[in-house]
Model the fold of this input.
Amino acid sequence: MNRRRAGVTATAVLVAMSLAACNRAPAAGGGGGEGGCSGIRVGLAVANLQADFFNQIKQSVDAEAKKLGMKVQVSDAGGDSSTQVNQIQDFISRQVQAIIYIPAGATAASVPVKAAERANIPVVAVDRNAPDAPAKTFIATDSVAAAKALGDWVVKQSGGEGQLAILQGQIGTTPQVDRQTGFEEALKEAPGIQVVAQQPADWAQDKAFSVAQDMLQANPNINIMWGQADAMALGAAQAVSNANVPHDVLIAGFDGDFAGLEAVRDGTIDATMVQQTQEMGRLAVQSACDLVNGKDVPAEQLQEGFLLTKDDPQKAQEYIDAHP
Done:
């Protein structure tokens, strides 16, 4: 769907949501149970359950909600913003009491937040936040700091010299913008590293493989590749292998999903930044409970990322066995 059609659809659904909200009372708070969470109904809107990163968050949300006696309804947008707008309309119609929201993209990301607010339903944003309509609280890795730490490691490993290719995530989404910002901060200290190519691969391994192939053909001297997600780093590694590049290529990712952890453990990629997906899911559920019960919740709850390199395969295995 093109952006114009997506915008028209999102606007139409927002109007429908607003009319529906006028005809319903504010959601009641939960009662009983641990911390007053038992019985609270939560909608979990996931960007794309085909991605291991989002699946990890979902699993953590399910486990924590079960522990607290909360009920979770799950929707999977399959990466499509317009689909997600309609799914959140369904949550509002079903009168959930809070929504945990992982936006499917930058397009129309603010529409569900505004509609939920009109219906007096608090929104907890995870990983991505709509800049023009932020949720009640935003839970994510401090991607600027984490990407800078990863960039500092790349600079040190490369000796501050090299030709760098960057495979970007979905342009305009919170993690893409923040990771780009942090990594560029690190590069300021290494003028000898030249960014010779950067292009979106939209978080996808297959697209990253194709993009990385084109990059290597156009710039055969590339010796550093950074995928703003592990899936894209894996696509880059596959492209390097297929191209039989005659020199070493340092490859870094970001996320710490299971495929990325295994790749670092096995030396397929050199490093990644591990996000605390399990903690983010638990925190999202507790924040939803607190908001329904009228408690104050910080506007931002940023988590530390953990740098993992191929020099520590034991730590990689520990993360595989028990993800943070």
The mean pLDDT is 90. The CA atoms of residues 85 and 112 lie 6 Å apart. The chain has two domains: 3-140+278-303, 143-276+308-321.
